[in-house]
Backbone:
C-alpha cells in the first residue's frame, strides 16, 4: 500500500468476508492501492469522491462500460479513471476453470485485476480500467468469445437461474430462453434507445432464485398447470421420521390452506394452490411441481433507485415457452414500442404502466385483461357502469 | 411516398444533434421521432435505427451517459 489506511483497515477485522482484504491481495498494483486510499479519504471527509457516466465506451457501443472518475485525480492518479466493464456471462453462469483463467489473464493485462463475479446486474464485472485500455481489452474479450453486457438506457444483460442444468424444479429451460433473447436483442443491449433501463430475468420455478419479481421489468417465472406430483414412498418416509412435522410445518403454513393431512395421507386441493413452492421446498423427496410445465410472465418490477420499489404484476398467467419463443418476442417488441414512444425520460416500464393505467397498457400492447391480473378486489362499491352509447 | 436513404436520414440527424449541442440532450427516440415528422412514412423506426448506427459507426456522434443515455457529437480529438 502506498499510504496508510487505518479507517479502511477496520473492515478487515472480524470473521466475515472483507472486501478490503480481497482488494489488498491485489494492492501490489498501484490501482488497487489508490482505490483504497480514495476510500480512506472518503471516510475522513464523509463524502464520496466518485462520479460516473460521461462519454467513455468502446467504438460503436453505448453500453457495457460505466465511466468512473474520482475528483482527487492529482492526489491519486492511478485511480483517476477507474471504469467498470460489464461482461455478458454464459447463461446460468457456467464457466470452465480454463475460461476463468483466460478472463483473469486478459483483465490483468488491461486493468486493476479486481473483479466481481457476479454483480447485481448478473454480469461478470471488471472493476478499474483506464480509458486508453478499453479498446484493447474489448478486442481481447471478443477474441476469447465474450461480449460486453448492457448498461444505460438499454436492455440489460438478460439473467437467469441455473434452471434445468442443476435443478429438478425448473419448469422451463431458463438458460435456453436467456441465451436466445440475448442473441436476438444485441442491438437493444448495446445501442441504448429506451427511455430507461429494461431488465429481463428468468427463474425456473416460483422460488425465483434470481429475484426476478422484485428487480426485473419482465420476469419469466416457471409454473405448472396441473396437479402437484406426490411420491407416496417419499411421503411415507417423512411421516415415519416425523421430520418435518407435516401438519405444523407444511399444512398450516400453506398460504391458501389448500392441504389436508390425515392418517399419513396428504390431500391437495390444486385449484386453490397458488404455486408458492413452500410444501415442495419442505418435502422435496415427496412433492414436485406438476408435469404440465411452462412459465408466467410478469411486468414492471424495479428496485428503488428513482421513486419507490415495485413488485412485478402478472401479465400472462401461463405460456408453454418453447423455441423459438416467438410469443415472448412479440410481447417484448409490443412493450418496447409503446414505452419508447410514450415513456418519459428515466421512467421504468412499471412506472409507465402506473401512469397510463393497466387497462390502457393492455389495450395498446394487444393483450386481453384476465382475472389473474387483479391484485386484489375493488374496495369501492360505488362505481357506476356506463353502457356504451350506440 | 418518396424513398429516403439511410445516409440522408443520418445527415439530418447529425444536423439536429449539432443544432442542439449544448442546449438540449437528445435520446435515440427523439431523433427517430423528429425524422419521422420530417420525412413522413418514408422514415420508419428500422430506418431511424440504421441511421443512428451509421452516425455512431462513422464517429460523427457517440453515446453519452448523464443519468440516461443520449446521443451527442463526438468530441474533437
Residues:
Amino acid at each position: 500500500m502506498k499510504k496508510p489506511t487505518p479507517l479502511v483497515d477496520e473492515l478487515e477485522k472480524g470473521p466475515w468476508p472483507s472486501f478490503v482484504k480481497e482488494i489488498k491481495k491485489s494492492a501490489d498494483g498501484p490501482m488497487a492501492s489508490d482505490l483504497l486510499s480514495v476510500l480512506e479519504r472518503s471516510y475522513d471527509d464523509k463524502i464520496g469522491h466518485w462520479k460516473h457516466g460521461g462519454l467513455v465506451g468502446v467504438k460503436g457501443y453505448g453500453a457495457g462500460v460505466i465511466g468512473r472518475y474520482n475528483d482527487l485525480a492529482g492526489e491519486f492518479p492511478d485511480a483517476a479513471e477507474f471504469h467498470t466493464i460489464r461482461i455478458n456471462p454464459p447463461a446460468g453462469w457456467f464457466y470452465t476453470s480454463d475460461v476463468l483463467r483466460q478472463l483473469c489473464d486478459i483483465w490483468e493485462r488491461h486493468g486493476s485485476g479486481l473483479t466481481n463475479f457476479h454483480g447485481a446486474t448478473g454480469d461478470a464485472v471488471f472493476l478499474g480500467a483506464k480509458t486508453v485500455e478499453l479498446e484493447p481489452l474489448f478486442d481481447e474479450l471478443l477474441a476469447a468469445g465474450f461480449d460486453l453486457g448492457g448498461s444505460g438506457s438499454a436492455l440489460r444483460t438478460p439473467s437467469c437461474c441455473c434452471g434445468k442444468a442443476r435443478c429438478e424444479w425448473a419448469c422451463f429451460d431458463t438458460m435456453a430462453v436467456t441465451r436466445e433473447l440475448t442473441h436476438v436483442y444485441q442491438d437493444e443491449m448495446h445501442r441504448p434507445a429506451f427511455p430507461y433501463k429494461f431488465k429481463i430475468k428468468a427463474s425456473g420455478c416460483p422460488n425465483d432464485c434470481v429475484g426476478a419479481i422484485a428487480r426485473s421489468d419482465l420476469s419469466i417465472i416457471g409454473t405448472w398447470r396441473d396437479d402437484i406430483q406426490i411420491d407416496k414412498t417419499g411421503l411415507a418416509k417423512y411421516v415415519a421420521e416425523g421430520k418435518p412435522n407435516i401438519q405444523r410445518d407444511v399444512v398450516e403454513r400453506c398460504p391458501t390452506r389448500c392441504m389436508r393431512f390425515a392418517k399419513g395421507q396428504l390431500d391437495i386441493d390444486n385449484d386453490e394452490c397458488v404455486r408458492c413452492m413452500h410444501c415442495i421446498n419442505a418435502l422435496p423427496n415427496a412433492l414436485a411441481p406438476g408435469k404440465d410445465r411452462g412459465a408466467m410472465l410478469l411486468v414492471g418490477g424495479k428496485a428503488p433507485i428513482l421513486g419507490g420499489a415495485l413488485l412485478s404484476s402478472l401479465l400472462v398467467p401461463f405460456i408453454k415457452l418453447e423455441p423459438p419463443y416467438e410469443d415472448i418476442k412479440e410481447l417484448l417488441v409490443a412493450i418496447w414500442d409503446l414505452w419508447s414512444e410514450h415513456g418519459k425520460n428515466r421512467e421504468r416500464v412499471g412506472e409507465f404502466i402506473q401512469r397510463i393505467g393497466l387497462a390502457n397498457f393492455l389495450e395498446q400492447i394487444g393483450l386481453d385483461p384476465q382475472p389473474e391480473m387483479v391484485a386484489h378486489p375493488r374496495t369501492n362499491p360505488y362505481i357506476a357502469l356506463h353502457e356504451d352509447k350506440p | 411516398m418518396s424513398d429516403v436513404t439511410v445516409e440522408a436520414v443520418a445527415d439530418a440527424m447529425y444536423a439536429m444533434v449539432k443544432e442542439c449541442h449544448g442546449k438540449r440532450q437528445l435520446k435515440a427516440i427523439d431523433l427517430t421521432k423528429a425524422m419521422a415528422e420530417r420525412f413522413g412514412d418514408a422514415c420508419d423506426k428500422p430506418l431511424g435505427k440504421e441511421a443512428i448506427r451509421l452516425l455512431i459507426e462513422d464517429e460523427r456522434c457517440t453515446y453519452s451517459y448523464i443519468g440516461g443515455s443520449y446521443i451527442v457529437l463526438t468530441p474533437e480529438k
Chain B has one domain: 6-73. Chain B touches chain A through 22 residues (CB under 8 Å). Chain B has three helices and two strands. Residues 60 and 74 of chain B are 6 Å apart (CA to CA).
